[in-house]
Specification:
This protein is an all-alpha fold and 389 residues long. It has a domain of 140 residues: Up-down Bundle (Four Helix Bundle (Hemerythrin (Met), subunit A)), CATH 1.20.120. Helix 4 runs antiparallel to helix 5 and helix 12 packs antiparallel against helix 13. The radius of gyration is 20 Å and the shape is globular. It starts with 5 loop residues before the first helix and ends with a helix.
Length: 389
């Protein structure tokens, strides 16, 4: 978590991306819930709503998470980091306009607008990558920035797959899109924990990064060219190995957080433990999907273990620190509660484990269809929590 320049923190004009990002998040979440309910035969297909379904993942990852991450990084420039934000702030309005253009292009089925919006989103991400490269040139957090830069290139590739190019493999495309928040979060975890990791573990995490780099390279080749199924198997195995190394390196830190008397530390430890388990489980399911005969149920279970399980839990866990700082607030630990965590875990547990048993117990479809409401309630509870802090 970066320090925030007092002038930026107190000036409301620097906080305008926050409500826009939350608006994109709620929009994407509602689309996902409606799609899930329709696929579970809870309500009939609506042609207009059906046109919105492809927006769910890109708007959530690019419109919400990417906007939030870029905003958080920019707010740290100026005091703790000797770079003036200046031109880098252009990434924010360009990204917002790109996402809005993409939404309009999909709704109107206008390919020209979709391509133009893809160009705008790509420009915003390139500006952000240039900022990260400049930070690395200053010698700041070498491994954490390496993960962040790699994650941003993954996002850039995903934008191309979403707006310019039809992927040969949709599972590869989905993993590349999710890899942006996954790898960026891992980079931030290194940034937060590096002082207590020790030299040996930092060297081990450098190995984790190179394994991840190789894994993503294999997934990109598989997604664009669909050369051999062995590519996604090896890519998934490497991905799992990289994350497992990262988790084992950070595990002692999580245990120390659990022992702390500070409520915020305990709150963070619970979310970290659950999030890593979701991520490792999701990648293991992805590996099974690659090896076994592919089924939509296994695909959904893998993707939602990673997206809602890992990314969602990490956002809720780190949210009180990140969002309260971005809004210029001090975290009041006594106000923290686990309601969003319980709702998210229950909702995603129903979705993932329901998908796994659905082939042998189809009646669970109705319960799965309503699980999205729990996810929505989790994020509403989370927003209420943040406002109370």
């Amino acid at each position: 978590m970066t320090h925030i320049e007092t002038g930026q923190q107190s000036n409301p004009r620097y906080r305008f991306p926050m409500p826009i990002a939350i608006g994109f998040m709620l929009f994407a979440l509602i689309i996902g819930i409606l799609r899930l309910m329709e696929f579970s035969d809870i309500y009939p297909y609506n042609p207009f709503i059906g046109k919105l379904y492809p927006l769910h993942a890109p708007v959530m990852i690019i419109g919400f998470i990417a906007l939030l991450i870029i905003f958080e990084r920019l707010m740290g420039l100026g005091i703790s980091i000797p770079i003036k934000p200046g031109k880098y702030w252009l990434a924010i309005p360009i990204l917002i306009l790109g996402v809005m253009g993409y939404i309009y292009g999909v709704i109107t089925s206008n390919n020209s607008i979709i391509v133009a919006s893809g160009v705008m989103m790509s420009i915003a991400v390139i500006i952000f990558i240039l900022l990260l490269i400049r930070l690395r040139a200053l010698g700041l957090e070498d491994i954490s920035l390496a993960f962040m830069i790699l994650s941003s290139f993954s996002l850039l590739t995903s934008i191309a797959l979403t707006t310019f190019y039809t992927p040969k493999s949709y599972i590869g495309s989905a993993v590349l899109l999710l890899s942006f928040p996954v790898l960026f979060i891992l980079g931030e975890r290194y940034e937060l924990s590096k002082l207590i990791l020790g030299l040996t573990k930092r060297r081990i995490l450098k190995i984790s990064f190179y394994i991840m780099l190789l894994s993503l390279s294999l997934l990109v080749a598989y997604t664009f060219y669909y050369i051999d199924k062995l590519l996604i198997i090896m890519g998934s195995l490497g991905y799992f190995s990289s994350v497992l190394i990262f988790y084992l390196a950070e595990r002692p830190n999580i245990k120390n957080l659990r022992r702390s008397e500070a409520k915020l530390q305990n709150y963070l430890a619970v979310h970290l433990q659950a999030a890593y388990h979701w991520l490792l489980g999701g990648i293991a399911l992805l590996l099974l999907y690659s090896v076994l005969k592919p089924t939509p149920y296994l695909y959904d279970a893998a993707i939602h273990s990673i997206s809602v399980g890992f990314i969602g839990t990490m956002l809720i866990g780190h949210g009180p620190l990140i969002l309260s700082s971005l809004m210029g607030k001090i975290v009041r630990q006594e106000k923290l509660n686990f309601v969003p965590f319980y709702l998210l875990t229950l909702g995603n547990g129903i979705r993932v484990f329901g998908d796994l048993i659905k082939p042998i117990y189809i009646e669970i479809s109705i319960l799965i269809g309503y699980s999205g409401i729990l996810i929505l309630l989790a994020f509403i509870a989370f927003i209420i929590n943040i406002r109370r802090l």
